[in-house]
Amino acid sequence: QVQLVESGGGLVQPGGSLRLSCAASGIIFSIYTMGWYRQAPGKQRELVAIITSGGSVNHADSVKGRFTISRDNAKNTVYLQMNSLKPEDTAVYYCAAHRDMDYWGKGTLVTVSS
């Protein structure tokens, strides 16, 4: 059974930082492309960042220079370091694993507010 479990969300003030984690089980983690997505209230889910099995990364323009995706294959975990958070970053953040099939976590809520 494949499981992706996100953690690290919460309430943070503008300008603050959070680190999201996504622990995977039931897949050969190292061969999957891993992604972070987010969905704000009333909006469609959007890609935030993605990291391939080889470690190549891509970040959405809206988060470049503020967010960093990384992975630890020994821990079957993908991370999203989020700095300089803005109110518009408020969303439910999901991690996903992509290869021959797509798997999704249930999400973790990030709220950026003073």
Please outline what is shown here:
With 114 residues, the chain is mainly beta.
Kindly describe this structure.
The protein is an all-beta fold and 114 residues long. 0% of the residues lie in helices and 53% in strands. It has no helices and 11 strands. It has strands spanning 3-7, 10-12, 18-25, 33-39, 46-51, 57-59, 67-72, 77-82, 91-98, 102-104, 108-112. Strands 2, 4, 5, 6, 9, 10 and 11 form a 7-stranded mixed sheet that branches. The protein has a 4-stranded antiparallel sheet with strand order 1-3-8-7, with no helix packed on it. Strand 4 and strand 5 (46-51) form a beta hairpin. The chain is globular, with a radius of gyration of 13 Å.
Features:
114 residues; mainly beta; seven-stranded mixed sheet; four-stranded antiparallel sheet
Q: Helix and strand string, N-terminal first?
A: EEEEEEEEEEE
DSSP strand (E) fraction?
over 45%
The N- and C-terminal alpha carbons lie at a distance of: 40 Å
Total helix count? 0
- Uncertain stretches of 5 or more adjacent residues: none
Q: Fraction of residues in helices?
A: under 10%
Structure class: mainly beta
Shape: globular
Total E-strand runs: 11
| Largest sheet descriptor | 7 strands, mixed
Q: What gyration radius follows from the Cα positions, in whole Å?
A: 13 Å
Mean pLDDT: 97
